[in-house]
Amino acid sequence: MSRKFSFTVQYSVPVEELHRALTNDEMWQSRFADAPTATLELSHPDGPGTIQIQMTEKAPEDQIPGIVKKVLKSELMLERTDIWGPLADGVARGSFNGRSGGITTEMAGAFELRPTAEGSEIEATGTVDVKVPLVGGAIEPLVENLLKKVMNSERKSVESWFAAQNA
User: Fold this and answer.
1) Measuring CA to CA, which residue among 137, 161, 136 is closest to residue 24?
2) Tell me: the pLDDT tens digits for 101-115?
């Protein structure tokens, strides 16, 4: 059984600048520069103003919840692919999918980047499915929360990257 989710991350930068950062290789390379267990592959299969970001990372042992540790079969490896389309009329759409190794987890959904009075926001909607008997339903909210944390961390990285670019 899968769990549906939806949440929004607020940014203090205008939508055009945020989209430019999200589709910029240098921003993503900067974001992952201090992540020794991560890999990053960037491509632009749909041309300029778009991007496909493939990320993998080994979860730090000390950050894995106890309920997850009990059902892990091997190291917890997280994989995520984000795709961002072009900005059109102030809105950009994207998609994401993710999975994990060590525990069978699948996540998929969509992004919408849009302007706000204070800057911009990204809405993420999707589903998560943890295929572990008995405890999968208890782990699914943890996976959703992890995505929220990652997207808030990305917000901080993007805003720091902007500050460095404008310094």
Assistant:
1) 161
2) 777 889 999 999 999
